[in-house]
Amino acid sequence: MNKLKGILTHQTVSDEDFRKMMTMPAEEINSWSNVKVEIVESTKDLYNKMAKSIVDTIIENNRKNKNTKIILPVGPTPQYKILANIINRESRSLEASPIP
């Protein structure tokens, strides 16, 4: 299959590409897409993965004394409550260490 035909301003992929993705076997999506695609069982799993990814990215960048830059979704946003729960439950600090 071909790669994505292009990004449109009002949707992520063209209608044609969307139809292809919705009908292709899951194991073929990553060989076709130009970005990594991970399929999860439920929206709950998706929001948990997003929250964990955010906290892991911030902590890893802080460990390397790097600023974190993340493009965050504005809605729906259940992952932010999950993120707060992870930070509080695991007593995680998101403060960056001072750069010497």
- Describe the largest sheet: none
Model regions low in confidence, pLDDT < 50 over at least 5 residues: 7-11
Task: Look at the structure and give the mean pLDDT.
Answer: 82
User: How large a portion of the residues is in β-strands, by DSSP E?
Assistant: under 5%
Task: State the distance separating the first and last CA atoms.
Answer: 50 Å
Share of helix, binned: 40-55%
Order of helix and strand elements from N to C terminus: HHHH
Q: What is the gyration radius calculated from CA atoms?
A: 17 Å
Give the tally of β-strands.
0
Q: Number of folding domains?
A: 2
Notable characteristics:
100 residues, elongated, mainly alpha
Task: Explain what you see.
The chain is mainly α and about 100 residues long. It has two domains: about 1-40, no CATH class; about 45-90, no CATH class. Helix content is about 45%, strand content about 0%. The chain is built from four helices and no strands. The protein is elongated and about 50 Å long. It starts with 14 loop residues before the first helix and ends in an 11-residue tail after the last helix. Residues about 5-10 have low confidence and may be disordered.
How are the SSEs ordered, and which strands pair?
Layout: H1 15-23, H2 29-32, H3 43-63, H4 78-89
Helix pairs in contact: 3-4
Q: What is the structure about, briefly put?
A:
This protein has 100 residues and is an all-alpha fold. 46% of the residues lie in helices and 0% in strands. It has four helices and no strands.
